[in-house]
Structure formats: structure tokens, C-alpha cells
Predict the structure.
Amino acid sequence: MRGIDAARKWYETEGAPMLEREFGGVASRIAVGRAGHGSECFGYDDAVSRDHDYFTGFQLWITEADEREFGFRLERAYARLRKEFPPDGGEGTASSELGDAEDGVVAIGDFYRRHLGFPGAPENWQQWLYTPDHAFAEATNGVVFRDDLGVFSGVRDTILNGMPEDVRRKKIAARAVFMAQSGQYNFMRCLRHGEPGAAALALDEFVRNAARMAFLLNRRFAPYYKWVFRAMRDLPKLGELSGKLTDLLTVRESGEATLERIEAVCAAVASELRAQGLSDRGDVYLEPHAFAVQSGIVDREIRAMHIMEG
């Protein structure tokens, strides 16, 4: 059973009855679910995931005012629930200092601050532009089991659907120019200079930017690199690039053959840019597309930024 399913089962069989029994008057103010760090929050956990930083549990998200009113009592009740009615699904066999379990009582603002650096949805275009995609992905993954109050889910929905189009265009323009520079231009030049290590770095740069591009063109957030190819396979647009980009990193072949793969990826991206009305350029080379995308930005301050920023 996947971790997220085990968490829901434990909540429905033990957690929900406890909340109604001990917090009936305020139970409707408590949002419950599982999100944040961990492969189980993305639904990607498997047998390997259980070797460290793995647990079955759920989070209880409450406002700061409610945390002051009944947070301590709720935290003690959850700890007692784990001890007296431990969930099925098990725990990881080891933990790392970077793995910090997220379960139990969490103030809504603290949850988003932990993942994004601020206590809710971005309030300006700078926060949208400079916050890492994987941070947004972690802040919005998982499943919300209950949220009568709607505060936690309201922030979540704003993040999932509220990125300004000018910011999306800026990110896409930057990804396009990085793909052109690293993959279509510098990869072969590095090989011709007799620098295979630099060529490998250029290829890595191309793949990372191509993957992020695919998510942007689907209006989704790319997760942490460990799960980016897995998540790409679920994208309705350009999902097939997951296998193509994997092959670029893993298939050993001539530089010319690799360049053909690069150009095929770029052709697919260019086609999607045109399909979304982001560019009208007919080139396969992505640099002209980058400037075409940026020229469509309405906000003058964002449009004036360097093409590679974002």
C-alpha cells in the first residue's frame, strides 16, 4: 500500500473518530492530509523508499489563532494516537539529518514558510519568479483529506493556479535560451575542443532545463530532480520527453547522434511553444523562440530583465 493511502486509512479509521470525540466543537477548523517532503507525498514511494525517512502519518493544519487556543492539546492527542493505535505501513529503517518527518500539528503559515520561505501564496512577482519550482511542488503535493475551513486549501489552490502569465513566460524564455546555449550550441563545441567533461556538463544543463520547460508548458511545478523524470511521464503535453531526456543521459553514442536527440527534443518544445501562442518562430533553434516569448511579456520590468534570468 502506498504511503498516502496508508495515511488516509489510518486517518479514517482512527484519526477522524479521535478528532470528533475529543475536538468535536473545533474539528471543522482542522485541515487534515499529507503533503510536503517525501516520495510518499508525491505518490512515488516503493519498497526502496522504506530504507530511510519514511513513515505513515498525517498532518493537522490549523491557523495560528487555533494553534494558540488548542494546538498543544491537539498535539498531545495525536502523539497519544500514534502510541496507542499505531498506523499500518511501517517506518523507515534509518533516518538522515536532512530527512525531517512532517506529521502531527502544523500551523498553516509554518507549513508554507517551511517549504517556500513565506507563510502563504506568493504576494508579488518576485516571489513567483525566484522561488524554486521544487519548493512549490512540495508545498502542493499530496492529498488533503478534510478542510472545512478552507484556509489551507485556499493557499494551495492559489499556488497551483495563480502563477502570473508574465512570470511563466519569463521562466519559459530563460529555459529556452539555456537549452539552445547548452545543448544546441555548446555541447558539440565542447567535444570539438577536446573537452568531453565540459560536454557532459552542457548535456546535463540541457536536460535539466528541458525538463523544467516541459512542466512550465503544462503549468505545473517540476519536483526535486530525483522525481522529475517520473513526474514527467504523467504530463499530458511533452510527457514523452521523459524517456528521450533519460536516453540523453544514459545512452552512450557519438556526439552527432546525441545532437540529433537534442534537436528532436528542441523541435518538440518549439512546436508546443507555437501551439500555445508563445512564439511564432519557425526555427528549431530555441534562442529566437526565447526572445519571442519574452517580447510577449506585458510587465515592462519583467520584460526588461536579462533573457537568462528566471
Q: What stands out?
A: Strands lie at 31-34, 59-62, 104-107, 143-146.
